[in-house]
Structures are given as C-alpha cells and as structure tokens.
Amino acid sequence: xxxxxxxxxxxxxxxxxxxxxxxxxxxxxxLELFVDQRDGSGASxxxxxxxxxxxxxxRVCRSVLHNPDDTEDAFQVxxxxxxxxxxxxxxxxxxxxxxxxxxxxxxxxxxxxxRRRLARESRAAExxxxxxxxxxxxxxxxxxxxxxxxxxxxxxxxxxxPIVLCYLEGMTQDxxxxxxxxxxxxxxxxxxxxxxxxxxxxxxxxxxxxAGLAAATVGAAADAAAIVLPAALIEATVGAAIGRSTxxxxxxxxxxxxxxxxxxxxVARWLRLAAPIVLIGGLAGTAAVFLHRxxxxxxxxxxxxxxxxxxxxxxxxxxAGDPLPDGALARLxxxxxxxxxxxxxxxxxxxxxxxASIDGNGDLDLWEAATGRRRxxxxxxxxxxxxxxxxxxxxxxxxxxxxxxxxGIVLHDTADTRPxxxxxxxxxxxxxxxQVRGLAFAPSxxxxxxxxxxxxxxxxxxxxxxxxxxxxxESKGLEHLAFSPDGRTLVSGRSAIAAPxxxxxxxxxxxxxxxxxxxxxxxxQLTRRxxxxxxxxxxxxxxPGGETVAVAMIGQETFDGGHPGITSDRGIRLxxxxxxxxxxxxxxxxxxxxGLAFNSDGSRLASGETAITSGMIEDVPARLTMLHxxxxxxGQELRRAEVRGGGTMCLAFxxxxxxxxWVAWEEHVIRFWNAADGQxxxxxxxxxxxxxxxxxxPDGRTLVTVSEDRMLRFWDPCTGNLTRQHEAGDDRxxxxxxxxxxxxxAxxxxxxxxxxxxxxxxxxxxxxxxxxRHFTWCGDLSADGKTLATSRNEGVVFWDTATGTxxxxxxxxxxxxxMVKSLRxxxxxxTVAAVGGDWVxxxxxxxxxxxxxxxxPNRGLSDGFMLDGARLTFSPDGATLAVTSERDxxxxxxxxxxxxxxxxxxGATTRFKALAFSPDGGILATGVDTGKxxxxxxxxxxxxxxxANREIGRVPAHRSYLRxxxxxxxxxxxxxxxxxxxxxxxDVARIIGGNATVAAESRDSSKRRDGEKSRSAG
Length: 1018
Prior knowledge:
By secondary structure, the chain is of the alpha+beta class. Helices cover 23% and strands 33% of the residues. It has a five-stranded antiparallel beta sheet with strand order 3-37-36-35-34, with no helix packed on it. The longest helix is centred in the N-terminal third of the chain and has 31 residues, at 95-125. The N terminus and C terminus are likely disordered.
C-alpha cells in the first residue's frame, strides 16, 4: 500500500514538474514536443496549447454559433485538426493565428450544417425553426464580432498573427515578439498596418469604426480572458487528440465535421500548391499545363515542403515538349508564357487566340493563348537606348503595331517576324525621337492613333501608313489613349507633372491638373475635358460598350528636398463618357492601383494594386499584391487575390469569357485568373521569377534552386521533374548553399533573414536576422554546416548555425570596397573571401577579422559604369581563386595564399557573373553576355581549361543572363541558373566535344605539376 502511494506521489510530482516546465515553452516548442511524442510530455504539451488558446477559440466559435453543443463541437474539431496536421502546420511561430482561422472556418461549416439539420427537422415535424436548439441573435444593435473575426481571418498571415496574439489573447507586444520570433519593431509595425487594414475593410462593409475597432478587439481579449474552459471539455479534447478512442469524448456531429474540414484542408492544400498537370488542346505534343486552383479571396501563406507528382518528359524536349538547347539534358521549369525578365505590357488579339507581351529587355513576344507556346520573339532594342511606347493588335489579329523611341511605329505581321510597314512622321511635328505613350486601333481597323509625350495626338491610315491628321497642341503630353467602340471618339489621359518647389513649405507643383480628354476623331476637336486634380493617372480603360471610362489614380507626385515621391489621393474613379459625370469611386484600395481592364460585356472591372511607392522601401520586405474584381454597376468588390510579389505590372481580359491575364512586378511569367469563380490557371510548373542560385546535392541525385519568387524547389536533374517545393522567404532569394554531407541547406537574400533547413524533412531549423536593415546579396555555408556567412554592406556576418549567434566581420576602411556581391568559404573552412566593386577581401572565420584585401587590376570601362554582380569561387583544393569584378568581363585566376595573378580569361560578361570549378579543378565554367545595353546579346556558357588558360567549349544557353553555375559531384553535369526563370542541366562532355581528351591531358599534367611542387616543398 505504501509502495503504491509512493508511486502515485512520484507520478503527481512528475506531472507538476512537467506542467511547470512546459508552461514556459513557446507555441512552436509545444507543437514540436507533441509531434515528437504523442504520449507523456506530448500530451502535456497539447494540453498546454488547449489551455493557452482555448478561450480565444471558444469565443470565435461562439461568435458564429449560438447553440452550446455546436460551439463545443466546433471547439473540439479545431484542436483535433491541429493535432492531425501538427507536423505540417505552415507557420509554427503563429499557432494562435492558425487556430483563429481554423476555428472560424469550422464554425461557419458547423453553422451551415446546423441550419440544414434544423430545416430537415422542421420539415419533418412541420413546425418552425424558432425552437430552443438554435436561436438567432436578437435584432437591434449590430454585433460586429462575427464580422471582425471574418476580416481578421482574411488578413495576410504576417498581419493576422500579431492581431490575434495582442488583441484577441491580450499579449503585450514584447511577449508577442518573443512568441513569433520577430523583432519588437516588426510587431509594432505590422500591428499598426493590420489595424489600418481592418479599419478600411470593416468600413467598406458598413461598420463605422473610428474608435470601435479598438473597443471591439479589446473587448474580445477581455471576454476571451474571462472564459473558463470546462475541465471535461479539455480532457475530452486532449484525449481524442493524443490518439485515445473518441467514443464518449467527441460527438458524432463533431466527427462528421472533422472529416469534412480535413477533406477541405487536403483539397485546398493540393489545389493551391500541387499544380496538377492538365492536358489542354488536342494537338500531338501539346504542353502539360499546371492548373493551379488557388481561391481568390484567400491569402497564400507559406506552404509546407510538398512532394509533387512527376510527369513524363518527352524525348528530346522538356516536360512541356519544348526543345532543349544542344548539349542540355533537362530544363527545370518551362518557357511557356515566360518572357525571361519583367513584363511591362500585355495585350490580347480580338479573337483571343494570341497574346502579346513586351519585356524589360525590349523584346516583343507573341504567344499562343491556348498553349503558351512562343510563336516568335522580336528584339525592339537599338544601340542608343529604348523606350517602348505601346502596342496594339489590329482588329483582325493579323498584325500588331508597336512603338519604340528609336524605331518609331512599326506594324508587324503576327504570322511571322516580318515588318509590314512603318508609319510616317512629320519632321515639323514629331521632332527627333518623339516618345509614343499610347497606341490604339479604330474598331474598323482602318485607322491607328498614337499619343505622344512631346508631340500632338496623331491619326494614320492603317493601310498606307500616311498621316490623316494631327490634333492641336493641347493633345501633347498624353500617356493613355483609347477609341470608343463606334470609332467616333478618342479618349486620352494626361497626368499632372510636379516640379521642385521654390519654397521649403511648398511640396507640390504642376501648372495643370490631371485631365481626361474626349476628342472627335473625325475633326480632331476637343469635345470634353474632365479635371482630375493633382493625382497622377496610372491606368485608363474604356468599357466595351463605350458607356464608361475607368481611371486609376496613383497619387500626387511630390518633391521633398529635390527628391520625387508619391503621396495618397489614390483610387479608381468611373466616369460616364456621354456627359463626363463621375458615377462612382471604388472603395477599399489599400495601396497604389496599377492596371485596369473591363471584361467582354463590361459588367466587371479588374484592377491591380502595388505596395511599392516611389523612393520608399517597405519596413516589411514581403509584399502582397492585390488583384481586385469589381461589379461595375454597384461598385461592389466581387473577389480579390492576395499574391506575394512587388505589385501588379499589367493585366488584360480575354475578349470572350472571364479569363484575365495578369503579370506581377517581380515575376517573369503571365498568369491567368478566372474572374467569375476565382480559380487560377497556372501554366508554369517552376519558378515565376529569376532563379537566383542552384546547387547539386552531394550524391548528384537532386538539384536545389531558389528564386526571386521566394520559393525553394527540389528537382530530379535527369528528367527535370519537380519533386518538392517550399516557400522559403519573405523576400527575393539570392543564394542557396548545402553542407558537405547534404543534410543542411541555407537560403537567403534581400531584406529578409537567412534560413537554415533540414534537407530530409524540409523543416526550417533556424532563422538568422542581423540587427539593423541591410540587403543580403549573397551567403555561403561551411562544409561542416557549423557556420553560415552572409553579406552585410561591405562586410560579412558569421553565424553559428547551432545557436544562431553572430559575429560581424567588418571591412577595414581601405580604398572603395563596394557592397559585397559574392562570398565563398575556402574548402578548409578557415577563411571567407568576398568581392565587391574592384576589391577582394579575406576574413578569418575564427576571429571574424579581415586579414587581407587587394584591388583587382581591371582594365576598367571608359565611363566608369559599375556592372551588376561581381563573383568569386575557390578551386576544390583551395589553391586558386577565380574572381571577376563589377567593372569589366575579365576573370582573374589568383593564387589564394598570396593573391598573385596566375592568369586571366576574357569572360565577356557584363551582368551577374557566374563562375564554377569542376570537382577536379581542371575546368572553369563562366557565363557569357557579349552585348551592351540596348543591343541584342549572345547569352552562353563557356568552359575553360584552367591549366592552359584557353576555352574548350561554348554553348548558347538561356534567354537572359546567368545568375549561377554549379557542377555535379562527379563533374559530368553542369547546372545553369538564369534570370529567365529556368535552370538547365548540361552534359559537360557534349559541351567540350572534341576537346575532352585535351582537357583530360591538361588536368593530368596540372596534377603532376602540383605533385612535383608538393614533393619539392617536402
């Protein structure tokens, strides 16, 4: 008896000890403990989560449900869903946020089920629904709590998390910062932004809350704190969560509800992230296209590491059936609808079969709208620079007019690259290189109109290219142009131009306001003028019926100390074209509008939005792009998409149906949305932005890439199949590095913290956030995985990957070192070398002290222009350092110990150099970019015999410049990562060709020389 009593006492003491220890753990730690051990400590950890967040969850359920049984069912289902998905919760540091959103969705589903159940019971019993089992809230004062929880759930995760912790659970901002693992300043900034978003969205729904927002949220926290969870409810929930029988613990209704919500989560996860392959079209070899069904109206949060089903690659091509360059084995990603750089304009032909785009390099691409195949590409650039003024399809779709600053206006045949005609210019009117800012065909196709920045509005005969008329001087300075559907009217837009203020207290200028102008196209007379104030025009669109013109106002241009900027006063305004009267202003624009398009019947208006403002960088690097769809008649927002990226670049509705082509600032592909049902048709199975870096795993079986689209992806290098993917950052990713054993992987770039990952599980191990704001250009992981080095201005930060502590390796004030653009660990891990500008600097890893620095002997450029992206890399034995600066295309081979020059290669590279040694050190791969700004370039890969300092292979590569090169461990394959959003896997032997034997002999002789040096030194 005494023994049993002593055992029971020990058990109680152990339980109390565990409870005390567990109570101090963070949500992420509790969840990890539960995942690792479902019983014992794991059960205590889950109980702690229920007790910690249960009051908030119960209050959310009560705000939607008014029946106590239904409320408890929803409470249990929420926590059981957490238990089922604990291993793949997207953001462990934000468990409260996840619970809030899940509780709200579960409660909504439970309410729907309850109403259906009551309706059936009512019909069966032939009595009303007003029984005690379900009571609607009393009429009278509007309860804003359900609306508040609904809008909180719609917030992006980074804003929802602090709102839930600080306002719904009553945490202090400092405590929330610790819980989320964010700096306190970040919590304060995001909390303020979240409050503003909530206020604007609630106001849009008719809930006036200048002060009510704070009252509602503080009241929510107070009510949640006052809730006492029934002990029986806690016991039943924890017992079911840790795998004990649900019998007697969970009601049958709750089990049905749990199954439904699990199915919904699984389907949503796969539809949003798996991008299943769908065959479109009936032609042989038609591309496999990914149908990405991400619901509009739901923010895309960070996804778990996801395994992707592998499609079959056609022989001789990539997975989409497109041909590979000679010597390439596989393409990671696709060229479908991928321009290779930022897309500035996009337009549909009238029949919807073709889609045209113009990118930042000045290339015009013509796409088959059904398949995404590129029909042809035309370089519009010339030696003296580029200004793309606009493009317009002829109504019959057989030709496309394009305007550039140097080439004027040219009509191209859409069947091939042949130019049909150039449109005449009057020397006395279109002086010099007149800047075209807008093009529009008349609906009949017999006339083409152009708006100029520095010349009058002009109309040509489309068949002859001769000028019909030039309008008055009042038509100068136009930026937007459109014909009315009957062709009788031209509508143009001109923005106010601010000038530097003569007095410090005067911040805006501009002689005239922004205006809309309506012209008689036959006579050239101005028939109506609509003043828009000082806010600039970002986009303009005329409805297909000609009744309405929509204008996106992007804000007022200002000057402060001589620097331009953009203030508020932005939104979308609708005017009636017949009399110029403003009929509506669309509400709820949280950022600067960009892009407008009406659908085919004019009932819907799509608008883009960007958070980027002139001269400013957001405190939060991760930006959300809003894509809105509006009901034109009522002004109601029908749906929205919240997508990561810098903002909307351009958009266009297909001539028939509800397909919307859309391009984001930081992406290089055209994406498609169904505006009617909110589904996204996504033909891109890989990266949407520039591929920043690539690396083989040590066994060579997997390739890892990171991109400016913030994604970390894993590929089969033999087939090009995407096997896993993960959203791995809050900003553009510029580097990826693996430990020598392939177990750890580091990623980073931009303004966001670097991260460390466990490769096998895909679990994020640690984040590395240095104090202060700085842009991370590059990083590298030591071979043993114990140290991570990242760039910081002109210096380096050394991180202990086990503890997350850091040491700053500052640059000594000598010369002009420039920003560190590339850094590498020496193979022995004792030193790190970095290059920026013309300078190479070396740090001792143990002391974080700079030990050496020297300037490269560049030939330089006559104008002193600094090119992007110096690069360096060590040879595998650590004896040689290959480095190239930002001033020219030379590649220097240096003795790593003495910095003595061993040789130099004419890399002919201008942008984002790429360097990689083969595993035996005999071959150096470099990227080639032979052109200058404004010229057509050769983009290729060169292989060099290091010992002989001569080229042994050269192959054309990507559509845009290279970001990175890397060899496989056996040296047989090479991967190239490009700005064009793809990576290519190459057969090294096929690139070298007949030089393979010579290269092997050269490497053997080099090894013999190295051996002789070692013996003589010994």
